[in-house]
Every structure is written in structure tokens, then in C-alpha cells.
Design goal:
CATH superfamily of the largest domain: Response regulator
Largest sheet: 5 strands, parallel
Organism: Halomonas urmiana
CATH topology of the largest domain: Rossmann fold
CATH architecture of the largest domain: 3-Layer(aba) Sandwich
Number of domains: 2
Strand content: 15-25%
Strand order of the largest sheet: 2-1-3-6-7
Number of helices: 8
Distance between the termini: 26 Å
Order of helices and strands: EHEHEEEHEHEHEEEEHHHEE
Shape: globular
GO molecular function, one term: phosphorelay response regulator activity
Protein name: Response regulator transcription factor
Keywords: DNA-binding, Phosphoprotein
Structural class: alpha/beta
């Protein structure tokens, strides 16, 4: 999961980045609305965490403009404002969820995972593709009921394929959503990591669609 955090409190941003990073979230940061505006228009994110009190304008104003321009990335508002009128303004601008400061990092993580899951059309926290199960809350994977050990990068890659299933996902889409923008891999790196996942999950579970990309399947399907 690749997330943009828009927060001008650097200490808070660093603490949240560390905590979410430990949970496998790939977090990029912006300290002002203008910087965030550039990033959401040029980069691909699975969600945005947006503070309302930004130095160059209220966060809800930036959010309203994104929605006006058909940028539909899920947005979790994170702010110290607790009045209902402030929350209403955020939702009216296009926010998908709202967390007030101070907060528990675990709550932010759960809400982020739920937003991303729902944006892909999944209601249940456990994504099942055949005998493969990906628990979006715990970040754990089982195959036929047995736990599968994955590296952080393998887990992010599988998570994106699981959320997108049964859709075919291109290499460029994987690069945009699974890797840091400053360290986007070439197609060979993605191929190598797909190969490692196949060794752990079974070759038939990740199908290659030549010229299109990859698709997570139940294991007994044909491409």
C-alpha cells in the first residue's frame, strides 16, 4: 500500500511514517497543500492522509479541488479539529474517513486498510482467491490454511495483486503502487519478485498475460 501523508508537523509525520512503515505501508510525505497537489496529480497512491491545517490553505480546499478534477484517491482526514462543523466540511469536500488528534496509530492503520480495500470493491477484511487468503488487517497470508512467510516487498506486491484480483495488473501499475517513486524498479526486478512469490504460492496462482501484466488466480484456472 502506497500512501501520501500531508502533514506540516514534521515530528508527527516522522513518527507516523515510522509506525506505518513498520506495518508495511510505503509512506511518502508532503508538508503543504501545493506540494501534495503536485504529487497526487503526478504519482499513484492507494490513499492520502490529509491534515486540514496546512500552511498554504485549508486541507479541505485542496481536497475539494482534487474531487472537482476527478481525482478519486481515498482520503483519510487527520486533524486536531473536533467540531462537527469541521468534520462536515471535510466530508463535504470529499473525505472518505476522519480521525482526530491525538490518535492511536493502530486506528489510522486499520482505517487506511479499510479505505483501500473498499476502493477495490472488497467489504470483507480477508481477501480470498481460491485457497489463498490475505488478511488485510493483520497483513498475513495463508495458503490452504497454512501460513506463508513473505518479505515486506513480497507482501506489498501480493497485497496489490489480491486487491486488484481478478483484474490483470500491468508492470507499470505495480511499479507505481508498490515501490517508492525514487526507487521504482525496472521490469526485471518485478519479474524476479513475481518468480519468488510463485515459488512460495505455486506457479499457477500468478498468471502472466503477455503484453498486459499479471493476474492473481485461484490456482486451478487457465490464463
Amino acid at each position: 500500500m502506497k500512501v501520501l501523508l500531508v502533514e506540516d508537523d514534521r515530528a508527527l509525520a516522522e513518527a507516523l511514517a515510522e509506525a506505518l512503515g513498520d506495518a508495511g505501508v510505503l509512506l511518502e510525505t508532503a508538508t503543504a497543500g501545493g506540494e501534495a497537489d503536485f504529487l497526487v496529480r503526478t504519482e499513484a497512491y492507494d490513499a492520502v492522509i490529509l491534515d486540514l491545517g496546512l500552511p498554504d490553505g485549508d486541507g479541505s480546499r485542496w481536497l475539494a479541488q482534487w474531487r472537482e478534477d476527478a481525482i478519486d484517491t481515498p482520503v483519510l482526514v487527520l486533524t486536531a479539529r473536533t467540531r462537527w462543523t469541521d468534520k462536515a466540511a471535510g466530508f463535504s469536500a470529499g473525505a472518505d474517513d476522519y480521525v482526530t488528534k491525538p490518535f492511536e496509530t493502530a486506528e489510522v492503520l486499520f482505517r487506511l486498510r479499510a479505505l483501500v480495500r473498499r476502493s477495490h470493491g472488497h467489504a470483507h477484511p480477508v481477501l480470498r482467491i481460491g485457497e489463498l487468503a490475505f488478511d488485510t488487517h493483520a497483513g498475513s497470508v495463508t495458503l490452504a490454511g497454512r501460513p506463508v512467510s513473505l518479505t515486506a516487498q513480497e507482501s506489498r506486491l501480493l497485497a496489490y495483486l489480491a486487491h486488484a484480483a481478478p483484474r490483470v495488473v500491468s508492470r507499470s501499475e505495480l511499479a507505481e503502487h508498490v515501490y517508492d517513486r525514487d526507487h521504482e524498479p525496472d521490469s526485471n526486478v518485478i519479474d524476479v519478485q513475481i518468480s519468488r512469490l510463485r515459488r512460495k504460492l505455486g506457479a499457477a496462482r500468478i498468471q502472466t498475460h503477455r503484453g498486459q501484466g499479471y493476474r492473481l488466480a485461484g490456482g486451478d484456472e487457465t490464463p
